[in-house]
């Protein structure tokens, strides 16, 4: 997965170099719709990203189409039956729901990761 470079109104996008076309380009990440943009330099690329997001939101509002939101707060994870069982047991022992337990594990991991970075 490409690391996000830009963010605007909750949307995230990439910035990449095309040696074939001799230009900078990117796309909005984490949504189902395809939104791309180009620029001649980093400043233009960032502005093209912002403009693309704004045009997308405007288009969705004008047409009544719901805009894809990058993060809904829910996702499915396939972990295998043994990990699923062990997580359920650990959650129960902690007097938490499985969702609370998994959320806490993710937050702990992200916090540790940020302290290393």
TrEMBL record:
A family per Pfam: HicB
Protein name in UniProt: Toxin-antitoxin system HicB family antitoxin
Species name: Duganella vulcania
